Amino acid sequence: MSIDAATARKVAHLARISVAEDELEQLTRELDGILGWVEQLQQVDVEGVEPMTSVTPMSLPRREDAVTDGGIRDKVLANAPDAREGFFAVPKVVE
């Protein structure tokens, strides 16, 4: 696939990139090169290849999905301007 100047101008417009007319030819060549690489990648046989998320096989540590209070209620409430009976106290906003 080959890119012409009109297509390069349209891509620049869609990407909200200001391209001067004298830079349009260079942009056209660069976009044409990028598409060339994509065409080469499409020719690679990837049948049976598992997708990778990392270059080294590893799994993230998982924890039990349990609801807790964090165990630091007193420390959290120490930062509050007003706390009563273990909760944040806020001004009444509804009459």
Automatic annotation (TrEMBL):
Quaternary assembly: Heterotrimer of A, B and C subunits.
GO biological process: glutaminyl-tRNAGln biosynthesis via transamidation; regulation of translational fidelity; translation
Catalytic activity, EC: 6.3.5.-
Role according to the record: Allows the formation of correctly charged Asn-tRNA(Asn) or Gln-tRNA(Gln) through the transamidation of misacylated Asp-tRNA(Asn) or Glu-tRNA(Gln) in organisms which lack either or both of asparaginyl-tRNA or glutaminyl-tRNA synthetases. The reaction takes place in the presence of glutamine and ATP through an activated phospho-Asp-tRNA(Asn) or phospho-Glu-tRNA(Gln).
PANTHER family recorded: GLUTAMYL-TRNA(GLN) AMIDOTRANSFERASE SUBUNIT C, MITOCHONDRIAL
Pfam families (UniProt xref): GatC
Gene: gatC
The species this protein was found in: Thermohalobaculum xanthum
Keywords carried by this UniProt record: ATP-binding, Ligase, Nucleotide-binding, Protein biosynthesis
Protein name: Aspartyl/glutamyl-tRNA(Asn/Gln) amidotransferase subunit C
Sequence similarity: Belongs to the GatC family.
Catalytic activity, reaction form: L-aspartyl-tRNA(Asn) + L-glutamine + ATP + H2O = L-asparaginyl-tRNA(Asn) + L-glutamate + ADP + phosphate + 2 H(+); L-glutamyl-tRNA(Gln) + L-glutamine + ATP + H2O = L-glutaminyl-tRNA(Gln) + L-glutamate + ADP + phosphate + H(+)
GO molecular function, one term: ATP binding
